[in-house]
Design goal:
CATH superfamily of the largest domain: Alanine racemase
Number of helices: 12
Number of strands: 21
Bound molecules: pyridoxal-5'-phosphate
Structural class: alpha/beta
Number of domains: 2
Oligomer: single chain
Length: 434
């Protein structure tokens, strides 16, 4: 579900017209719905109520401070992948003691910083990393809480670039090796073996890979818990969302319809996994990113030109792959809708950005209402892996971001001034001009 819907002819986010926001703040513009973030968090929280649990928002999906604040205020922890993300979580009002720290390449400095912040746990991806964390902890006279990320070798059946739980991937430690790794970790100084972690991939719309992975790993968690006395088992993130308009709906009642049952609702996720997890008697961590933030955001863009070639009808917009790289990177689908709805013809259109790459597109041969120069469009479900993957390619400033709450809206990231793009750069001393 999400909170972007037409009121009359105008597309609104909660109680705010997107046309009004585009006029006030310019484009490209990310708009986030606080209500959607809250609704998704509480939906998952309630579904997991039979378990002692902690929802750690995977902030790599959207790390705007206002998004962090929304979720921190609801009690969320954070799944982080760099010292920068831990700092960001804290800057947004998150509690570092509810942060887990994942990633295959943690540097000594990052480990030292995380220890100084008293984080909940390091999710460890290799034995070399375990030894490094132990060394840094000894030096700093700290005890480091650690969990090994187990790679269960279960195919999530999702896009190759977002599958993480098979032996083809760089993530985690092979299922068969994990017990040996814990035995050796137990002999390393200044480590506390606090739990076990896994994550099999992203954008899973079927519960079956989760069930297979949990069914495989839960007995391992039970054995290790009996030996080392764990606090938690983390089943990672990956809950998929609806990107296709035929399936998406703003109406909560839709979740109980036939189409609604076909996708991965929090209740369906919980109903399948709780019976496997409850007997462990451990705190269960989940690390959703996209599920919380994906449908909470839209990217608003202005039509710059219409260009007709013999074969194509191009709608050239002012947003580009540097603002939203998912279509270019993963071939992903984003629903594209006009901010002001008009009747009339539908045209098979390619929606493209101004960047000098053929990959700079948002849709190809998509039936869209006919639009004209100066009209505005919204790319829906752009709240996850959208602005966080933004870049300055072609010296394009990062887009502004707005948070909506009911009838209120606020800029939560200003549009980047163009000079900031090259701040820190300078010609070499021998290139000085007299
Ligand atoms: C370890 C870990 N946890 C959680 C996530 C979040 O995934 P999603 O946004 O699909 O929930 C990721 C995504 O890459 C991840 O690597």
């Amino acid at each position: 579900m999400h909170s972007f819907r037409y009121v009359g002819r105008e597309l609104c986010c909660e109680g705010v017209s997107l046309s009004a926001l585009a006029k006030k703040h310019g484009t490209p513009l990310y708009v986030y719905s606080q209500g959607t973030l809250t609704g998704h968090y509480t939906g998952l929280d309630q579904a997991l109520a039979p378990l002692e649990h902690l929802i750690c928002f995977a902030m790599k999906s959207n790390s705007n401070l206002a998004v962090i604040r929304t979720l921190a205020d609801l009690g969320a922890g954070f799944d982080t992948v760099s010292a920068g993300e831990i700092q960001r979580a804290v800057a947004g009002g998150g509690d570092p003691r509810k942060c887990v720290f994942a990633g295959v390449g943690k540097s000594e400095e990052e480990i030292a910083y995380a220890l100084s912040q008293d984080i909940y746990c390091f999710n460890v991806e290799s034995e070399a990393e375990l030894r490094r964390i132990s060394r840094v902890a000894v030096r700093r006279r700290r005890i480091a809480p650690v969990a090994v990320r187990v790679n269960p070798n279960v195919d999530a059946g999702t896009h190759a670039k977002i599958t993480t739980g098979t032996y083809e991937n760089k993530f985690g430690i092979a299922f068969e090796q994990v017990e040996g790794v814990y035995a050796r970790a137990a002999r390393l100084p200044n480590l506390r073996l606090r739990g076990l972690q896994m994550h099999i991939g992203s954008q899973l719309t079927d519960v079956e890979p989760f069930r297979l992975a949990v069914a495989k790993v839960a007995p391992l968690a039970a054995r290790l818990n009996a030996r080392y006395g764990f606090d938690f088992f983390s089943i990672g993130g990956g809950i998929g969302i609806v990107y296709r308009p035929a399936l998406a709906s703003a109406d909560p009642a839709w979740w109980s319809t036939r189409e609604g049952r076909a996708i991965l609702t929090p209740q369906r996720y919980a109903d399948t996994l709780v019976p496997l997890l409850k007997p462990l008697g451990l705190r269960i961590l989940v690390e959703p990113g996209r599920f919380l933030s994906g449908n909470a955001g839209a990217l608003v863009t202005r039509v710059e030109y219409i260009k007709k070639t013999g074969r194509k009808h191009f709608v050239i917009v002012d947003a580009a792959m540097n603002d939203l790289i998912r279509p270019a990177f993963y071939d992903s689908y984003h629903e594209i809708v006009p901010l002001t709805r008009r009747g009339g013809a539908v045209v098979s259109s390619d929606v493209v950005g101004p960047i000098c790459e053929s990959g700079d597109f948002f849709a190809k041969d998509r039936p869209l209402p006919r639009v004209a120069e100066g009209d505005h469009l919204a790319l829906l479900s752009a709240g996850a892996y959208g602005s966080v993957m933004g870049s300055n390619y072609n010296s394009r400033p990062l887009a502004a971001e707005v948070l909506v709450h009911g009838r209120k809206s606020a800029v939560v990231r200003t549009r980047q001034p163009v000079e900031q793009i090259w701040a820190g750069e300078a010609p070499a001393p021998w290139q000085q001009r007299r």
